[in-house]
Write a structure and sequence with these properties.
Elements: E1 12-16, H1 19-51, H2 56-59, E2 64-67, E3 70-73, H3 77-104, H4 106-110, E4 119-125, E5 128-135
Antiparallel strand pairs: 1-4, 2-3, 4-5
Helix pairs in contact: 1-3
Length: about 150
């Protein structure tokens, strides 16, 4: 049985109001990608051990048929699901590597002369961080605290 696996990958812009928040988000994304990668790798490893066969012979399915713009596998669902899971694992590797690289070099970003009131726009494409815009036009929102005492009459 094939398990649900993979990541929901975001493409778009996310606003942050501090660089530590950007770093925290990137670390959380990397941890999620690594968990998904491990889970998917375990699914593949489990099937290979259960089948007692080697390599791509177990993973590749011949049951694919093109229906419109979509490939459909009705004949070999186990192998078809495994092939898709293998493809997901293959696509995860560069995503993890790029996110690790961004985090490794993030100190260089933090060393830039950035105004304290700036916000940050992180552009992600397919879950991969690609650009960071330092936005000085939309400052960090002011936070007001309310402190009060209540009395029962």
């Amino acid at each position: 049985m094939i398990q649900d696996t993979g990541s929901s990958l975001y493409t778009g812009v996310i606003r942050f109001y501090s660089l530590p928040d950007v770093r925290k988000y990137l670390k959380e994304q990397l941890e999620r990608y690594q968990r998904d990668f491990d889970r998917s790798s375990n699914v593949i490893g489990s099937l290979l051990r259960n089948e007692g066969q080697r390599g791509m012979e177990v993973i590749m399915s011949k049951g694919w048929a093109k229906v419109g713009a979509l490939f459909v596998n009705v004949e070999e669902p186990e192998k078809g699901g495994m092939e898709v899971t293998f493809q997901i694992v293959t696509e995860m590797k560069p995503r993890i590597a790029k996110t690790e690289e961004v985090l490794r070099t993030f100190e260089s970003v933090e060393a830039l002369p950035i105004p304290s009131e700036a916000s940050f726009l992180l552009y992600l494409r397919g879950g991969i961080p690609e650009r960071l815009v330092v936005d000085t036009t939309e400052p960090r929102p002011e936070i007001y605290y309310f402190k009060g005492d209540f009395a029962t009459v």
